[in-house]
Amino acid sequence: MKTIFITSFHGLISRNILATPVLGRLLARSDVGVILLVPEPKKLFFASEFLHPRIYISGVAESVTRSDRFSRYLAFSLVKTRSLAIKRKTELRGSGAWLAALLGGRAGAMAAARWLDRRFTPRDRFGPVLDRYRPNLVFAADVQNENDVRLMHEARDRGIPVVGMVRSWDNLAAKGMIRITPDALIVNNEIIRDEAVRYSAIPAEKIRVVGIPHYDRYLTEPRSSREEFFRRISGDPSKRLILYAPTGDRYLGENTVDREVIELIVAAMPSDCQLLVRLPPMDAVSGVPKEGKGRLIFDRPRASFLDVRNTELTAEADRHLADTLSYADLVIAGPSTMAVDAAFFNKPVILVGFDGKRERPYYESVARYFDYEHWQPVLSSGGVRLVRNAGEFQDWIQRYLADSEIDASGRRAIALAQCWRLDAASSQRLADILLSFLPT
Question: pTM of this prediction?
Answer without folding.
Answer: 0.95
